[in-house]
Specification:
ARM-type_fold; Cilia- and flagella-associated protein 69 ARM repeats domain-containing protein; ARM-like; about 800 residues; mainly alpha; disordered C terminus; 45 helices; coiled coil
Length: about 800
């Protein structure tokens, strides 16, 4: 076995690319091979029985081409090889030695006599490989022939890989998509099917090793890796791993093939390996490794197999197989720490054993999303074992990462092991940033699993507020603190009270601002977590709300609402809608004015409403387009009615008026001093979430009576805001009508539906008429303004004529050139 492996390595080192080497002078015998005479000798009815002469002719051709076949001879070589294979399959065993010599020469690079030989004859290479591989199907009794074929394929697949190797880059990344000329030829020849069929029944250890070497190099190329998956070879590789002795070369090569295929064709490979027999083979092999794999190389290969199992566990369909095959129980029994374990080799503090712990923990944590696997893990005490590993400095980070997954699937086991108390104590005692973040991530999922009350009783609220108030702590860590505090206080009055007692209200108020330019961290997500914490810890608890309002929290939120991006605006509006149910908060909202634009909160909300309406195509020039669907029209309606024509006319006139007014505004800006105006916010995607319901909820809390002067466009939007519930009901009734169109309801139900739709349509039509009147009023104002603009120009004309010089050139001010 070792000799076979060394032979494969030697062949890999000496092989060169299939592309022709530099032309060298060849023997006359090699140049003058008469293939026609050989074919006539083998096919003529007079010499058909002279098998010994046929064999001698083939051997002579191989001997004369001892430095490699010529590319110009490819076509006759293919015909000759097919004929020899055919005779060999018919029982003429005398061809076996000749085939060995012929195939041995085929392992050498082809030689070109001219620079154009590869272009002229290279298309025959795939046919040559197909004929060569077909020998495997007819040589079951001749081991040496199969070995030579495997060696030739190994040389071909390895050839050219060294030239693709780049420094600091794995070979698989260099050739995965582009391959090498040889690998592309092998892929076109479909050699994997024949090679797989032969490998499944191969009994020769030497042939198995050499074939595995060829398959290993082929698996570096993605199309060939997919062929390996499709031909069912992977299950045979796992079987080979199971039946061979620990430490054998076969294990290393077979494991590398599985690695390559899994990396290049994860979907296909994980599906191909997701069967009961494969999982049982893995179980049997891992059982042997746990009991007898004490050598360093055994542990390295054990870790490689664990990585494969970890990748297989990523596919949810495979996780049930872990439990059914007994693999889950075997892994859990080895992962759980025991004082006395005489069956398996004890894990040490060596690097390979630490790596193994991390791999097996991650694999088990993924599998525990399956109920059967979770039951096995709970029975073995996996969570308690991981919690005990938190006292080991080298493993505490990995143990926390694994617990992060397990808490989501096994919260009861985490509670029974008192895991929440251990994590809170670790959070208090740790001083490293990484450990603190790991603990906070774990607490994030713990509060979702119903640990809020238990964590509050342990004083977690005060600990988190203390970390949050520390300005020296990085922003991402404080962000996690705000998120965990939101989870703790969302459903616990006791935790909200603790939040207030430890100064959490004042601390969270100080962070209600949006200044992304002042930090390199992601300030947006930090503020989102802060708003979420306010929503959960302050809103809904009257004492917390009073303290927050007295600290100026509402005004700070409105300041942020004006300048925040859309994602943060949505979060703020939801929080404000709940906070304004408190009347004091509603009064403060009405009294607020922007320090930048002097707008009130209502105007900002109506601007957001208008943007949402325009995004859904509900209005044009502030007028509803579809009275049946005032919020979400089906599609843009054509102008085919009198109302539509009027709207189109008004729209075009308004557009001309706006262009003229733009010129007038430019004149005014050229004379008047420039005032500082806020930069408009960047364009945002409005379709991700409909926040019109949030705007309605806020406006309904402060009252629909206008407390500030609204423009015409804002008054138009305000009419729709008032009617928002009726608009939603109207669209819902129309959807009901459409869905029951094929059903004939009773008269009472039909009348009820029709009356409900008609009643709400009447309201939307009245709103549309009112909006149209406001649009007409705006058009009249714009026309009057435009007329005043033209009158001003006409009045200035005599002054400009009087100001002309003697040359007749008109002198005028910049911006008023005639």
């Amino acid at each position: 076995m070792a000799q076979a492996w060394r032979r494969t390595m030697l062949a890999s080192r000496t092989a060169t690319a299939v592309r022709p080497s530099s032309s060298k002078p060849h023997d006359a015998a090699e140049m003058d091979i008469n293939f026609d005479s050989v074919m006539q000798l083998m096919t003529s009815k007079y010499t058909l029985e002279l098998v010994d002469r046929h064999v001698a002719a083939v051997r002579k051709i191989a001997k004369s081409s001892s430095r490699g076949f010529l590319l110009r001879h490819l076509e006759p070589l293919v015909e000759l090889l097919r004929l020899v294979v055919q005779r060999f399959s018919q029982g003429q065993d005398e061809f076996a030695p000749a085939l060995e010599e012929f195939i041995r020469v085929a392992a050498l690079p082809f030689v070109s006599c001219k620079a154009s030989d590869m272009i002229t004859y290279g298309h025959h290479l795939s046919s040559f490989i197909k004929s060569l591989v077909s020998v495997l199907g007819v040589s079951s009794r001749f081991e040496r022939v199969r070995i030579e074929v495997a060696n030739t394929l190994a040389c071909w697949s390895r050839s050219g890989l060294e030239q693709e190797l780049l420094p600091d880059q794995p070979l698989i990344q260099a050739v995965a998509d582009t391959g090498t000329p040889n690998l592309r030829i092998l892929q076109q020849s479909q050699v994997i099917d024949e090679l797989s069929a032969s490998f499944k029944v191969e009994e020769s250890p030497e042939a198995i090793v050499i074939t595995l070497g060829a398959i290993r190099d082929m698996s570096l190329y993605r199309p060939l890796a997919r062929q390996i998956t499709n031909c069912g070879l992977l299950s045979n590789l796992v079987h080979v791993i199971r039946v061979n002795l620990l430490g054998s070369d076969v294990h290393l090569v077979a494991g590398e093939v599985l690695w390559n295929v899994l990396e290049l064709d994860w979907e296909g490979c994980s599906e191909a390996l997701g069967s009961m027999d494969v999982m049982e083979s893995f179980r049997d092999f891992m059982e042997v490794v746990f009991a007898k794999g004490y050598r360093f190389k055994d542990k390295i290969f054990r870790n490689d197999m664990m990585v494969l199992l970890m990748y297989l566990s990523k596919k949810e369909e495979n996780r049930q197989l872990f439990a059914d095959a007994g693999l889950m129980g075997l892994l859990c029994s080895h992962a759980v720490s025991r004082e006395k374990d005489t069956e398996n080799i004890a894990l040490t503090g060596a690097e390979e054993d630490v790596e193994f712990r991390v791999l097996i923990w991650n694999t088990l944590a993924r599998c525990c999303s399956n109920p059967s696997c979770a039951e096995v893990a709970q029975r073995c005490g996996l969570v308690a074992s991981l919690l005990s590993s938190l006292s080991t400095r080298r493993l505490e980070m990995e143990a926390l990462s694994t617990l992060f997954l397990l808490v989501q699937h096994m919260p009861s086991a985490f509670r029974e092991a008192n895991g929440h108390a251990i994590v809170v104590r670790l959070l208090r005692e740790t001083t490293t940033r990484e450990m603190r973040n790991k603990c906070l991530h774990l607490l994030q999922v713990a509060v979702r699993s119903g640990f809020s009350e238990a964590l509050g009783q342990l004083g977690a609220v005060g600990t988190l507020i203390h970390i949050f108030m520390d300005k020296t702590v990085p922003m991402n860590c404080r962000q996690l603190c705000a998120s965990v505090l939101a989870g703790l206080c969302s459903e616990s009055d006791a935790n909200r009270r603790e939040f207030r007692k430890h100064g959490g209200v004042e601390a969270i108020r100080e962070e209600v601002l949006y200044r992304p330019d002042e930090t390199t961290d992601n300030h947006l997500f930090f503020v989102l977590c802060v708003v979420d914490c306010i929503w959960c810890a302050v809103v809904g608890t009257r004492k917390n709300e009073v303290r927050f309002l007295d600290a100026g929290g509402l005004f700070a939120m409105l300041d942020v609402l004006e300048v925040a991006p859309l994602l943060l605006k949505q979060q703020l509006m939801g929080c404000l809608a709940d906070m304004l149910e408190y009347k004091k908060a509603a009064r403060l909202f009405i009294s607020w004015n922007s320090q930048v634009t002097m707008k009130g909160g209502l105007k900002i909300l109506l601007e957001l409403w208008q943007l949402q309406q325009e995004h859904y195509g509900s209005t044009k020039d502030g007028v509803l387009l579809d009275t049946d669907r005032p919020l979400n029209p089906r599609e843009e309606r054509g102008v085919d009615s009198v109302t539509g024509a009027l709207q189109a006319s008004a729209s075009s006139n308004s557009e001309r008026l706006r262009r003229a007014m733009t010129f007038s505004d430019a004149q005014g800006r050229s004379v008047a001093p420039k005032a500082r105006t806020p930069r408009p916010p960047p364009p945002v995607e409005l379709g991700k979430q409909d926040f019109r319901a949030k705007i309605y909820a806020i406006v309904s809390c402060i009252g629909f009576a206008c407390h500030e002067t609204l423009g015409i466009a804002e008054r138009q939007q305000m009419e729709v805001v008032k009617l928002f519930p009726e608009c939603v009901q109207l669209e819902t009734w129309i959807q009901v009508q459409e869905k029951v169109a094929s059903i004939k309801p009773i008269a009472a139900d039909r009348r009820w539906i029709e009356e409900s739709v008609a009643e709400r349509q009447k309201k939307t039509c009245s709103v549309q008429e009112l909006q149209q009147e406001l649009a007409d009023e705006r058009q009249e104002d714009e026309e009057a303004s435009l007329e005043r603009f033209y009158d001003d120009i006409r009045n200035r004309a005599p002054q400009r004529r009087n100001g002309s010089d003697g040359t007749g050139l008109l002198t005028c001010r910049p911006g008023l050139r005639a």
